[in-house]
Amino acid sequence: MPAGEDNQLISVHPSDLKFIIELGKQSFCDLKVVNNTENHVAFKVKTTSPKKYFVRPNTSVLQPGDSCLIRVTLQAQREYPPDMQCKDKFLLQSTIVPPNTDVDDLPADTFNKESSKDIREFKLKVQYISPSAQGNSGDEGSSDSNSTLQQLKEDRDAAVRQTLHLQQELDLLKRRRQRRNDPGFSFKFATIVGVIGIIVGLVLNLYLSK
């Protein structure tokens, strides 16, 4: 939990903004803000680089216990920042407002610290992530996926081999039945057919789960 969050009117998740930087493409990060009080709370999002980011909504009013999703969009960049470092910062201000206050009715000085109002502030840092770093993470996920798929194929092949074995045993029983009257044939036949049905079902499930 970030320092001072327990003294906030609202909680913010995540506590940092992370953007994947790809030249010529926008990148976005979602913030979830939650009203931790039994009061109506207004909030406003500010940034040190307002021309680089598009924040919606940047101002709103939360009812008691309510939450809101804020999308912060980083405008398309023409070049990578030096060492992928970012000094941009965001500030989320919040204050208690009268019940049933609409965002359009907020006074101009609602978030003015000189207005003697109790205004809480939550600071967020910005992190830039390179596409290659994101790709490496994706490769790990792909490796796990391939491992799971390989296991499913092996299980499927084992089920197919078992089914063929049971079919061979069934053919053998049929031949024995033709040579002599085997009282237990009907029971064995029904048992093997049932087992084959179960295994065929497993094989179909494995195919569908690929």
From TrEMBL:
Gene3D superfamilies recorded: Immunoglobulins (2.60.40.10)
UniProt KW keywords: Membrane, Transmembrane, Transmembrane helix
Single GO biological process annotation from the record: endoplasmic reticulum membrane organization
Region described as Disordered: 132-154
The UniProt record lists the keyword Transmembrane: yes
Domain MSP: 10-115
Family affiliation: Belongs to the VAMP-associated protein (VAP) (TC 9.B.17) family.
Record protein name field: MSP domain-containing protein
Source species: Gossypium raimondii (Peruvian cotton)
